[in-house]
Amino acid sequence: MALIWMVLLFSVSADLADCLPVKPKRSSLNQLTRTLLRNYDSGVRPVHNWTSTTTIYIDLILQSVLEVDGKTQSITTSIWCRQMWRDEFLVWDPEEFDGINEISLSSDALWVPDVIVSEFVKEGKSPPIPYVYVNSSGSVKNYRPIQAVLACSLEMYAFPFDKQNCSLTFRSWLHSVNEIDLALWRSADAIANDKREFMNDGEWELLSIPSQYRQISQDNTDYSQIQFNLLIRRRPLLYVVGLLIPSIFLMLVDVVSFYLPLDSGTRIAFKISILLGYTVFRVNLTDELPASAVKTPLIGVFFVACKAMLMLSLTKSILVVKLLHHSEKEVKQMSLSACLLDKYGSAGHSYTDSIFTSIKTLDHSNQPDDFDVDYSLEEDLLSLNEIQEVPSGLERLLQELVSLRLGFAQEDSESLAQSEWLSLCLRLDCLLFRFYLFVLALYTSTLLLLWASWSFA
């Protein structure tokens, strides 16, 4: 009977055990994470021997150049920064944890080196990545995308054919070279020629990324640093088509306007229209030009010189037209000397006329009456002589012919003098036009040589 009761109790307990939920076994990944972080201190450099040096391997991949600001001397870039170091506290045997060879851990729970970029002005919007990869040998890999605004000494003198050299210097903020040392993850040649990730369809072209390792001494302590130099070149096609070629076209139109006739006002009106149009064109494109307080860019000198040449051309045309019409009464009245004489000589002239009038009045008042009688008798005698000496019809005809001949001769001499003066003005215009072309060619070739020397330097 007792045996039967024991069998029943055993069967009931077995059924109850089958009905109870089975407690899940901890996963190997969870056990590994708990094991690694149980006694881990993220504030301590991960070495068993404190005299050992932790080497940080750094790599840089440039994705794009977002903005180059000459006014603030800064450049905005998008880069991938990769760091790798060995954490001696994060080592395990993969066979003890189901062959797990690599895991991801929170970067907040681990020791992270205090490596900074010296040229950082501010950090832009970058997606946060809170995890790092750790393998069984203790190697920690930290990949971070960074949108950084960097301070850079920009040289805008050769704009838009300029090249820029901006540096990114990685260094430890606090630790000396005996504690944290830096090294390149890849070879310098591989980093310099790596352009696979760079967006090469924008305004800037990536030339190279040379890198170098060096140690600097500060307060009798050596610090290691790695410097990457971003060598980029601007693509000038947009600015050549939008800025330089329209300016050159306006200058060519101004040169062609010299073939307009001098004796009409068309040339001066046309040149004024070109000058006003160029001024409006220059004002509308002010935002496209770089701002630099150290040196004036060559393109700024180019625009100023173009405007100066247009003003010189207009002044030359005004001078020649003024000389061409110098004998006309309206032109004489518009001269500077005539205006000055009219302003400052009117008072003296009126004073002289009043003196002459008063003297003449006194002379007439002092003359005797018999002089008036004699004077009237002489006029009567002269009138009688004129009546008696009236020429005949033939003599009158001869006198009219002589007067006509003299009139034609005077007109011929005036027309000859006018033609000679016109020829002289045309020669002067041609001479000034050659001088204008010489100055234009000289300054254009000088600017092109300067641009070429800066572009291919």
From TrEMBL:
CDD domains hit by this protein: LGIC_TM_5-HT3
Keywords attached to this entry: Cell membrane, Disulfide bond, Glycoprotein, Ion channel, Ion transport, Ligand-gated ion channel, Membrane, Postsynaptic cell membrane, Receptor, Signal, Synapse, Transmembrane, Transmembrane helix, Transport
A molecular function GO annotation: extracellular ligand-gated monoatomic ion channel activity
Cellular compartments per GO CC: postsynaptic membrane
Topology of this chain in the membrane: Multi-pass membrane protein
Database matches in PROSITE patterns: NEUROTR_ION_CHANNEL (PS00236)
Leader sequence residues: 1-19
Principal location listed in the UniProt entry: membrane
Compartments it resides in: Postsynaptic cell membrane
Membrane-crossing residue ranges in chain numbering: 237-261, 268-285, 297-324, 431-454
Domain Neurotransmitter-gated ion-channel transmembrane: 243-334
Domain Neurotransmitter-gated ion-channel ligand-binding: 30-236
Reaction equation(s) it catalyzes: K(+)(in) = K(+)(out); Na(+)(in) = Na(+)(out); Ca(2+)(in) = Ca(2+)(out)
Top-level taxonomic group: Eukaryota
Function statement: Forms serotonin (5-hydroxytryptamine/5-HT3)-activated cation-selective channel complexes, which when activated cause fast, depolarizing responses in neurons.
Family statement: Belongs to the ligand-gated ion channel (TC 1.A.9) family.
Name the UniProt record assigns to this protein: 5-hydroxytryptamine (serotonin) receptor 3B
Organism from which the protein derives: Oryzias sinensis (Chinese medaka)
